[in-house]
Amino acid sequence: MSPADLKNGRTNRESNRRTLIQSGAAERLALSPWQKWTSCAAIAAPILFFVVFTVDGLLRPGYSAIRDPVSNLGVGIRPWLLNGPMIGLGVLLVVCALSFVRGPWRATLGPAWSWICGALLCAPGVGYAVAAVYPLSSPIHWEIGAPLVFIGSFVAFLTVA
Asked: Which residues contact 116 (CB under 8 A, 6 or more apart)?
């Protein structure tokens, strides 16, 4: 920051913003409306899923959030109350991951890393959808769905971050 900036009371943030605007980088880093909507959906979907399975767990007799896995709510009475939002969560996470591939950071990461990060971010979404389609008693639920959600989330966010 220059002495003139200090004298005028400008902060680093204002100087950096002005530099970004002058260089044209702000336009290159701007998200499209589609990317903004998919980002909002990726934030809202897990919150909605959490609210739905919490309410369903409170209404289900004999269910304990401490003792039982959430997947227990996907069988028995009202399985659609968990499985529907879980499929929605999976689809929205996949859409957000595909939006990530086309994002402004593609220029920084390069096309190959952009696709690798997008594929890794798709894994938990696919895992949620698989876990919802195949019930708790199915081996596919535990052999494909659960690893994609648990391991896929860890690897994806560790790599992308």
From this structure: 159
